[in-house]
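On clarity, I found the account of how folds are encoded harder to follow than it need be. Since the whole study asks how a given chain folds, the encoding of that fold should be made plain. For the editor and my fellow referees, an illustration may be useful. An entry of this sort, consisting of the sequence and the corresponding backbone structure tokens, reads as follows:

:::
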Amino acid sequence: MTKSSNDTRTKHSRRLHVDDDNDEQIEATIAESAKPKSRSRCCCYSPCCLLLIVALLVAMGGLLIWKCMPESSKSVVENIVSSGLGGNTTSSSSSSSQSSTQNAAATHDDDSANTPPTFDYYRCTSENDCCNGVDTICDLSVSQVLFAGLHNAYSSVEDGFLLAGNHEYSLEYALQAGFRAINVDLGNCNGELTLVHTKCELGRRDPYTVFEHINLFLDKHPRDLLLIPIQVNNDVDEPVDLWEFYSILSSIDGFVDRMYVHNETLYWPTMRELIELDKRIIVFVYNAQVSCRYAGSCPAGLHDWFLYASETVYEFASVDDVTDAAVACPYDRGDEGYVDFYALNMFVSDPLPSRASSQVINQPDFLQSHLATCESVVARNASVIFIDFWEEGNLVDLVQTHNQQLG
């Protein structure tokens, strides 16, 4: 065999080895590519992680709401949850209907075991001389008499205001208990007039239902009259049309007929005159887009509250703030008008209505001391005391005792 043949064979053998090596590398590459590769993934963009973040935010929000919620509201929520776990499948519409039925029952003096506290309101010895529960004030002007008042009267836990309810029980029960000044807030939620404070989602009541219940109450109590100051909240959702509101009142049989229309050039009538004329509803409004101070600007019977009344400040962060006479007693709004009525605001919001504060403020000794102090500071008698959580303390007894001493 020649040398060239040997060289050729050697080259061929090397080429075979090289080819074998290439085959092995190719097979190794294929095997490596077949292995599952770990992919780097940003957890912030993973759908499951996004869901987890949302769930955590919802949970944190729920804990915050629960922490701020009044204890009475927590009890209501717990009862609802317990009922649901127990298999109660009652629809929301049925629950709403049941609440409406309960309110109607309250209007008609329901004496069931669940009825909230009542107070010593009726103290008359003669029905003919009885005016708002006592027989010593019938010949006094309505502006000289003291009224037990409800701040944000429509806002109760019973009526679904679970987070920021100003009261435990409805204003219908409060009427039975002896409260005769009913402050409500009127707003417009999505084109519908409603009783609401700041947010439509936090609770609201139908004005027709509320004022119908008030009218039914007066049907059954012909010797009682009411003051109803209405705050107009145009910034809730949409502006409030007072003429539309008046049409709602007009649709309630007999309500508008009972509304007193005051002539500002005259003195306010006596309690007896208003009762015998059956003009036992005195309605005021304030914060409306159009002032009701001028004839024809508002429907008849909607009086400008701050033309005739002055109020103390209404924002207190603690009970100590309420006791500060230099701040809590002077006129805050309405001092430029006639000041026929003088209203004391006695409630704490921090920022939600404080039941614990009302348990202190609504006690007769506290109320009496503050009333005497403020009457001395402004040198005139008070007309209304507005409180939260009317079930606490005993404002009604204090007011009736005060009125008995006026005669």
